[in-house]
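Handout, section 4.2: multi-component inputs.
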Amino acid sequence: MKHLKILLFLLFSTTLIGQNNAIAAGEKLTYTASYNMSGILTDLAQVTMETSAVKTSKAALLRLKCTAATYSKWDNFFKIRDLYESYVNPKTLTPYLYNRNINEGSYFKKMKYSYSHKTKTVKSVQTKKNNYVENKNVSISAGTKDIVSTLYMLRVFNYASMSKGQSKSFNILFDRKELKGQITYLGKETIATAIGDKICYKLAIGSNQTNVLQGKNNNFLWLTADENKIPVYGKFKIPVGNGELKIKSATGLKN
Amino acid sequence: MKKIVTILAIITSILAIIIAVLPVSNLAIFPAIAALVFGLGAFYLSKKSGQVKKIIQFTFLLTIIALAVTTYKAIFNTTELGNTDTLIKKEAELKEEAIEELEELEELDLEELEIEDIVIEE
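Output:
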């Protein structure tokens, strides 16, 4: 009962309503993923985040698509062609369908989630090499999103009203498991990017799964401190060195 | 001591050459610096004892080649995206499949959906 009271208090006293004023169809963000070892950078892959409008007979949806492709110099060693996409409500970013198609070297995996928010379940279909199909129904909590819609949802939060050190937590469905993610607002910073000097919101990203993101304050994301809140720079701790995600170009922004 | 330093110089210079020809050529700078340090150490110790072996000069040669390859690749090689035709094809296929699937989803009524609450933990 005491826990319930605390939960209700937290819900009513500090709840923010997320509304999409940052993301529109036709947006394309391109990034370079690199490996940084003691300041020596090695470019690995190009990551793109694209949005487009999708119409069905029932509704107009937003398609959020993320792709990762290694640069040609890597293709002979370790070729990556990954695709992640999520079909979401354009206003609330609530996902309805999620597709993941990963092709990494000789490894192949396909994953599809069909959401049923009324029953709080997700119907998943996993396809591996040799067309080995596995169906599984997963129960989810209210507000649980896949990795793509979560990434876009980070842009909907109102950071201007947050104080330094304040955290937000959310649930992510990844590999048919529900993970708890957390972002901590660390304040504003100005950083130089390929699209100019930008005043950014600096966020620390963490997870309850230690093998997903190492440590609580080792992974950072910088979002522009404007209406678009586009991610311009990301820094992620890996066992030796750092992984970096730097913006190359941004087109079709909403504001 | 002289022998150990010479062996280390050989190992690091070979490592520098191997890394220099791989896509991670930028990282060859680390073993190359180590090879130079060990090579100079081996050269100094050999000179003290009176005879400088040819192998030490060979490690210097390997290191210089590795550094030259790394510098060349860093200046002249541009990072370009490989062939993404299969990915583009896959994207189109998945989109078609997804639209079919979304048509069948009964729950797809945007008017009913409420904006979700996000919990903030202080």
